[in-house]
Design goal:
By secondary structure, this protein is α/β, with parallel strands linked by helices. It folds into two domains: 385 residues, 7-stranded beta/alpha barrel, CATH 3.20.110; 104 residues, immunoglobulin/albumin-binding domain-like (Up-down Bundle), CATH 1.20.1430.10. It is built from 20 helices and eleven strands. Helix 1 crosses helix 3, helix 1 runs parallel beside helix 6 and helix 17 packs antiparallel against helix 19. The relative contact order is 0.14.
């Protein structure tokens, strides 16, 4: 018998690249998460490996995030962002006599300078290769995901859309990591029964759903979600344990809400005089987060208290011990109840650690270390768990439709503010699927030049539709400050699709491709037939 726990992180950033401007606020989504989550995470994982501390972590790097990490322009901009933060740190150290936070600003400066050195000198700006290194040593299981984080159940009205999202996502994974993935991260953990066959047909072994997706299944039993199930298609399904995940994730009861941790919202970029921030903001009047924060979450008469690293360290000691002890007790109880080789899966967005929860990366390090010391259970990955239990027969399960969005289903993406998107997506998906089908049926009779022209049209139409299908835009439409940008991005992709479709009916592009193609330099070698007829 063995007791197992798995931490699964989803790292996703939507495709944003605005090279037409010197500094783009939306691109900072990428730069901030690289600086605050991924550089500290890699630093910690390499340190544990070097010290011989056993651990396994599962990580999804979404295809759009991978594309952004490998984009040369965005790499340069990430470095420029780091340099900008370091200049602000130096200013904050010098301003310390006024603010009283000079020592903390110096701590930030030292930390960011070290991370910058790792980024440039150790990993040569290539975080994909750094993660591959940890994969190759057996410490990391990397998963594939949908091409643009499309919410797959809402795309099933045109199955070719889901097929294209899956195939393009796997293709990006293979191009980046050189081998097929075993696991597939469902965007927003959103599942529908028809997705099982689509994943299995593309060579995927396992995926993860919310606990109620398995708990409400017709074959539910006391084993779920602490043992995987197998669908009739042969896909293994792991369930996310809600209780253990909530200890970290819950906004009301989770560890990050403890008043000794750093307050995310109190940021120099929001608090300092706008004139002082002018150089950092590149003459913009729009305030933004900088990552420099001096206060902790507790409130005293509505006044934030200064951040105290010693208090935060005590909170980390308590919470990491509580998490490890609780998982050990939970697994022992499951084993006593007859669950063979129980598995607890805790899944989170990666940017919770380091970005939203400043101390989160240190928390992960502590639970890996404490688990190795205590030996009550083992941190593993879903793929490793299946390999270790290759001779077992797992119970059959047909998970019900579900997601980890608010309400547990799809309400977040079908609200009054964003529901219009799905009809527009469906209409264009049907147009593209029909176009591809007719092309395939008549290709033998077409002229070589016409065939090449239409293949290029289908390639570009597929890319623009995939980008429009990103669940991020529908999600952001629920948020007043982000709605205008999200609507513009979605409509831009729809308009590009429509322009290309009109060109497809001509004999040549008349130079219009040269206007459209550079707008989104992602998936430049996408196959034209991702929307081929789905059987």
């Amino acid at each position: 018998m063995s007791r197992n726990c798995s931490i699964v992180l989803n790292a996703h950033v939507p495709w944003v690249r605005h090279s037409e401007v010197a500094h783009c606020l939306e691109e900072d989504w990428l730069h901030s998460v690289v600086l605050e989550t991924h550089l500290p995470l890699l630093e910690m994982l390499f340190r544990l490996r070097e010290e011989g501390v056993p651990y396994k972590l599962t990580l999804n790097l979404s295809p759009t995030f991978l594309a952004m990490l490998k984009d040369r322009t965005l790499k340069r901009r990430t470095l420029a962002y780091l340099n900008r933060i370091l200049r602000l740190c130096r200013d904050e150290v010098e301003r310390g006599d006024i603010t009283g936070f000079g020592n903390l600003a110096e701590t930030y400066e030292d930390r960011f300078d070290k991370l910058r050195s790792l980024f440039i000198d150790d990993w040569h700006g290539d975080l994909v290769r750094a993660y591959s290194n940890l994969r190759d040593s057996g410490h990391l299981e990397l998963t594939a995901s949908a091409a643009t984080h499309g919410l797959l159940p809402l795309l099933m009205r045109v199955p070719e859309s889901v097929q294209a999202q899956i195939r393009a996502g796997i293709r990006q994974f293979v191009q980046c990591f050189g081998r097929m993935p075993r696991g597939f991260w469902l965007p927003e953990c959103a599942y529908a029964p028809a997705i099982s066959a689509l994943l299995k047909n593309e060579g995927i072994d396992w995926t993860l759903v919310e606990e109620h997706g398995m708990g409400d299944a017709p074959q539910t039993n006391g084993l779920f979600p602490f043992t995987p199930g197998e669908t009739p298609d042969g896909l293994f399904i792991f369930g996310r344990d809600q209780n253990s995940s909530s200890e970290i994730w819950s906004a009301d009861e989770g560890y990050p809400g403890d008043g000794r941790y750093r307050d995310f919202m109190r940021d120099v970029g929001l608090d300092a005089p706008i004139e002082y921030l002018r150089d950092y903001l590149d003459d913009s009047e729009q305030r933004q987060f900088t990552g420099l924060k001096y206060f902790r979450s507790s409130r005293n008469n509505n006044e934030s208290e200064p951040y105290d690293e010693e208090l935060a360290d005590k909170a980390l000691a308590e919470h990491s011990m509580h998490f490890v002890s609780s998982r050990g007790a939970q697994l022992a109880s499951l084993e006593a109840d007859g669950v063979e080789n129980p598995m607890i899966v805790c899944a989170f967005d990666a940017d919770l650690f380091g970005h939203w929860w400043y101390e989160g990366t240190s928390f992960l390090e502590r639970i890996f270390r404490k688990t190795a010391e205590r030996g009550d259970f083992t941190f593993t990955s879903p793929g490793s768990y299946l390999a270790d239990n290759a001779e077992r027969e797992f119970p059959t399960v047909t998970p019900v439709s579900s997601s980890w969005g608010e309400g547990g289903y799809f309400e977040t993406w079908t609200s009054e503010s964003n529901n219009w998107v799905h009809n527009e997506i469906q209409k264009r998906a049907q147009q593209l699927a029909r176009f591809v089908r007719v092309f395939v049926e008549n290709r033998e009779h077409g002229a070589e030049q016409t065939i090449a022209h239409r293949q290029r049209c289908m390639q570009l139409m597929t890319k623009e539709l995939l980008l429009a299908q990103s669940s991020d835009w529908a999600f952001l439409m629920n948020n007043e400050p982000s709605r205008e940008y999200a609507e513009k991005r979605t409509n831009d992709h729809f308009n590009n699709f429509d322009r290309i479709r009109a060109l497809a009916l001509k004999s040549s592009d008349e130079g219009e491709f040269d206007e459209i193609e550079p707008l989104n330099p992602i998936y430049s070698d996408l196959p034209w037939n991702l929307f081929e007829p789905y059987e």
